[in-house]
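Thread: Mannose-6-phosphate isomerase, structure

OP (GT): Posting the sequence first so everyone is looking at the same thing. Length is 311 residues per the record. Can we get the C-alpha cells written out before standup tomorrow? I want them in the notebook alongside the other entries.
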Amino acid sequence: MPLFLQPVFQERIWGGRALEAFHYDIPNDHTGECWGISAHPNGPNTIINGVHQGETLETVWNTDRALFGNPKEEKFPLLTKILDANDKLSVQVHPDNAYAQAHEGEFGKTECWYILDAKEDAEIIYGVNATDQQTLNEMIDHEQFDALFKTVKVQAGDFFYVPAGTVHAIGEGILILETQQSSDTTYRIYDYNRKDANGNQRVLHLEESKAVIDLTSGSPNTTPVHKEIQGQQFTQFVSNSFFTVERWVIDGQLTYEKPQAYCLVSVVEGSGSVTTGKGTYEIKKGSHFILTTEDQDVTFEGNMTLITSYV
C-alpha cells in the first residue's frame, strides 16, 4: 500500500497563496513552502492511510525499514517541496555533505528545480561571475552584488540542477517543485535589505557562504532524456548519487516498473488513480506518496503529470 502523506506548510516572508491551486488549505497569505514528502525534523509528514496512519514518515523510516528495502542510510535521504515564490527569495548557498556534517550535523543540500509556472520574464540567480576566492570575498565584502550574481530567464517546464556550493535564488513569480537532500541548512548572502514582521533584517551568513561557494559550478541545465514508454511521455531530468528525478506525462494507462525499492511520487497536474496489489487509490494534483516494497504491479491511469524521484 502506498504511503500517502499530509503536507506540511511553511510560512515564508516571500510566500503567497499560489499553493491553493494544489487543493491545499494553506494557513495564511505568506505560505511559501509545501513539504510534500519529508522526514526532516523541521517538518515531518504524517502518514494518512494504512497501518502506519498517524505516524510520521521519520518514525516509519526508523521502525519499518523493510518498507524501503532496508536501505543503508541512517536518515531518510530526500525531501520534496513545492515553493511559491510570490516575491524573490534571498540569494543563498548550501553546503555539501562534508561541510554540513562537520558544522551543522546534517546532510548537505544538493537540490534541483522543476519549474511548474513562471510569470513572463521571470528569472533566477544561478552562479557568480567571480573566478577566484579573493575576488569573490572582495565583491561580497563591498556588496557588489549586481556584478557578482548571474541571472537566467526561466519558463514553465524548465529544469535546473543546483548542486551544493552553487549561489542561487528563485525570482519573483515562480512556482517550482524542488527535489533535494533532506537538509534545512541555508546560508544567506543577500536579502534585499528586507525586514521580517518584527522589523528585523534576516540574518546573513557571509563567512559561511565564502567557505562553501563552489566557483567551478557550471551550467544550470542538465540534458534531459526523453522517451515514449507504453504510449506515455517520460523524461529523466537528472540521475546521480544524490537522486534521480523523472517526469511522467500520462494520458491513459501506464504499468509502472519501480526502478528502486521505494519511489517518491508527486502529482503536479491532473488526476487519476494508482493501483497496486493492495488496491486502487484516487490521486490528484497536490497528492504526494511513496511507493514501498509492498507496492508491486503498479499501474497509473488518468490524465496527469507526475514527478518521481528515488535514490
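GT: Both are above now. Quick notes for whoever picks this up: The chain has a mean pLDDT of 96. The helical segments are 57-63, 97-103, 133-141, 145-148, 206-212.
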